[in-house]
Amino acid sequence: DALKLPLVTTLHTVLSKPEGHFKSVTKAIINASDAVVVLAQNAKQLLVSTCDAPPGKIHYIPHGIPDVAWSPEVLQLRKAELGLSGRLVVSTFGLIGPGKGIEYALDAVAAATQQHPEILYLIIGRTHPTIVRNEGEAYRERLIQRCQELGIENNVSFVNRYLTLRELILYLQATDVYLMPYLDPEQIVSGTMAYAVGAGKPTIATPFAYAKEVLANGRGVVVPFRNSEAIAGALVSLAEDEYLRLDMAAKAYAYTRSWVWREVGRQ
């Protein structure tokens, strides 16, 4: 309220049905701002419909991504560099926690490997620091125990560290299928999804808000929440159809060329 300078606000979280204090504060911030930036197309419409935001004040700027080379040849080269040749590499990256739904992914991998034992699921990233502070590594240990119970220790690998951008790009380029079994339907933007789709990765995700927008028109596969059978079915379909994987990858890669940083800056 005391600010005299022009104010531009970026809203990361935009809910489909904001209520109470959250809604009133969001409206006040929009009213006080000269411009508001959102990172998803759908977020713009939501703010107009739920918070009476003036459409001309809301600006969509895509989540920036590194400019990563994609081709079938690059995929095989990066696999070889990581010692993963001959495996169908499935990956999830980011800070690990219960909201990511990884337990459902593990059950799906156990089912899919009955037909495709070449599947290797990489769970890349450290446990979320808040979770570590509150309960240590109990969640990760439960995931490891679940792998043992399912007998998929040779099909799942935990990369338990915070990767540099260069390392992350290497792992993404070596990935055949990206997996996001998230549990929050309201998630309006995801940096990990932006990076994966921007690297030309066929992506399987639950129907959270950003996934429905980004994976439309054949750019990925959307499966129901908390449904290991559906995830397994999608994994098997992609494992058995290289043409489908490559077609999905090409569509995802083309769709995200305007998201690379230099293009975002130019726009």
Model description:
The mean pLDDT is 95. This protein has a six-stranded parallel sheet, sandwiched between helices. The chain has twelve helices and nine strands. It has helices spanning 20-32, 41-51, 72-81, 102-112, 129-135, 138-150, 165-173, 191-198, 209-214, 228-240, 242-255, 261-266; strands at residues 8-11, 35-38, 58-60, 88-93, 119-124, 156-159, 177-180, 203-205, 220-222. With 267 residues, it is an alpha/beta fold. Helix 4 runs parallel beside helix 6 and helix 4 (102-112) crosses helix 10. Helices cover 45% and strands 14% of the residues.
**Morphology call:** globular
Structural class: alpha/beta
- How would a crystallographer describe the biggest sheet? 6 strands, parallel
Strand tally, please?
9
Oligomeric grouping of the chains: single chain
Distance between the termini: 31 Å
Radius of gyration: 20 Å
Uncertain runs = none
- Element-level helix/strand string: EHEHEHEHEHHEHEHEHEHHH
- The level of helicity is 40-55%
Task: Let me know the average pLDDT.
Answer: 95
**What order do the strands of the largest sheet run in, or round the barrel if closed?**
6-5-4-7-8-9
| Continuous helix count | 12
Strand content: 5-15%
